[in-house]
Amino acid sequence: MPGFEVLYQAAALCLMFPDDDFRARLPLLREAAPQLREFADHAAVTPPRELAAHYIEVFEAQPDHSLYLSVWREAAPAPSEELYRAHGLETTGEEPPDFLPAVLECAARTGDIQLLTGHRDGLDRLRSRLTDFGTLYATVLDAVCVTLPPTAPGRQTAPS
What we know:
This is Nitrate reductase delta subunit. Helix content is about 55%, strand content about 0%.
């Protein structure tokens, strides 16, 4: 599914901790990925401390909002450092290789969406939980999930 690389890169940035670098990239992110404008516009007008506190509340204080794919216990294997190296990429060591922003960045750089499609059920569950929580981070997952093929009928994954 070519053509979604910019969206995946932008979504990866949106799902990282909102530091000064993120804030500096908001105008570019807004223009490059129109699907994320609602989130980018909100982030641009939200005071930095408030945005950071919200990120912590959503992703660090809520165990059922994990950005780590291995938490979702999918049938698909979690990404490994070897997988990134096979694509000519290196992990920084700051986050495990199953960190969703890292997976999105890998998909953006390689065009390979197998890791995302293999974890589609978990991404849908995370998206649903973020929507129920009432956070605009759900719109980021909405934009990513709409680019992925639907889960195959009858496919079962382990409950989370």
